[in-house]
Specification:
Blueprint: H1 9-20, H2 35-49, H3 55-66, H4 70-79, H5 81-87
Helix pairs in contact: 2-3
């Protein structure tokens, strides 16, 4: 740098500081249990086999049979909005 030049990165650093601020707190990610995929598969098979009952009812039954806490599975589903949409729950 010669004697009269100024560093131009100061403005860019200020912009980065503003952009780096968190906009909203996101809940910590829930670890996916390998059994969650099995829950989804069993739910899909039950939906295909049975004509009565809603997705919610069948999902609760599958979770109860597999002894998986419903609130943990729901937290996992909230992170995976694509699964909620595919199941018609959102």
């Amino acid at each position: 740098m010669s004697g009269r030049q100024r560093a131009k990165t100061v403005v860019k650093l200020e912009e980065r500081k503003q952009a780096a601020r968190p906009k909203a707190r996101t809940p910590p990610p829930v670890e996916s249990d390998p059994r969650y995929g099995v829950v989804l598969l069993k739910t899909a098979l039950e939906l295909k086999r049975r004509q009565d009952g809603t997705v919610e009812e069948i999902l609760r039954e599958v979770l109860a049979r597999m002894r998986i806490p419903e609130h943990e599975f729901r937290a996992f589903l909230e992170q995976r909005e694509d699964l909620l949409k595919a199941m018609g729950m959102k």
